[in-house]
Amino acid sequence: MDASAERPRPPLASATPATPAPRQPVTASLELAPAPPRRRLGVWLERRLRNLALLMRLDRPIGIWLLLWPTLWALWIAAAGHPQRRLLAIFLAGTVLMRSAGCIINDVTDRNIDPHVKRTRTRPLAFRVVSPNEALTLFVLLLLGALALVLQLNLLTVELALVGALLTLSYPLMKRFFPLPQLYLGLCFGWAVPMAFAATLGSVPRLGWLMLVAAVLWAGVYDTMYAMVDRDDDLRIGVKSSAILFGDLDRLLIAVMQLMVLYTLLLVGRDLHFGAGYRAGLIAGACLFLWQQWLIRGRERDACLHAFENNNYFGLAVFAGLLLEYTSR
């Protein structure tokens, strides 16, 4: 049977007019049509804002929390459990701004290194979806925002804030030659502690510096766990870290730092004559440290990352102990 046999025959003149064939859907043609200019602009703007948010690590708030917990400890202790709402708002906003600024300057410095590290190769600068000039512009804007906040505080706090800014700017270079950049990061993260005392009391007592020691040691704990995730990549590209320096003694030396953190915080509680509420927070924190040691026992990347993130609960446990102590008085 030839092909012409399948063609429909034309209707006879006397026959009832045939029903018109239904029109084909036009969905496919509409999908292929270019988006209106406003729509394209909205999509472009959404992508740009998303990439900038990723550059500031707003999708990973764990860094904000780890920076915020020692700040909250200091604000509560400096104000004897009754911190000013104004100071709380300033330090909370400053924490977000400075953590974001620190992430940006770190990525600008490491933009040619991050593409070679498994965990960081998709960061906006490493993936080339944000330019260094755009990143530096945003960095300056964040610093100006943080400066506007700190200028509302007393002169000593402003001076300490300038030192903190220098610490943040210099940290990315430490990984090139300093074998323990994790402790230097701890100094950057803990610098808000003396600032909180200065903003509340107008001075930094011995207790404030003791709490800074605890914050630095704690950062050494969780950032060494973080460095264990990247140890193989860091060895290959020549970046320094405590995980590389510690070698097979990493778990032992992390445990030593964990004990030093707990002992320092215990000294803080003793100086303030804290009781059962505060000690309960430290006991909960000690249990979390034990769990972290269990997680890193095999030095597996995902488990070490999970142990790092678990430190957020340690900060919460200590803060909860402070709240219990002050509310029970």
Q: Specify the overall morphology.
A: globular
Compressed to H and E, one letter per element, the order equals HHHHHHHHHHHHHH
Rounded to an integer in angstroms, the radius of gyration calculated over CA atoms is 28 Å
Give the proportion of residues in helices.
Answer: over 70%
List low-pLDDT spans. Answer: 1-32
Number of spatially distinct domains? 1
Strands, total number: 0
Tally of separate helices: 14
CATH architecture title: Orthogonal Bundle
Ends apart, CA distance between termini = 100 Å
Q: Averaging pLDDT over every residue, what do you get?
A: 87
Into which percentage range does the β-strand content fall?
under 5%
CATH superfamily: UbiA prenyltransferase
Assign the CATH topology: Tetracycline Repressor, domain 2
Give the CATH class: Mainly Alpha
Keywords:
14 helices; Tetracycline Repressor, domain 2; disordered N terminus; 329 residues; single chain; 71% helix; mainly alpha
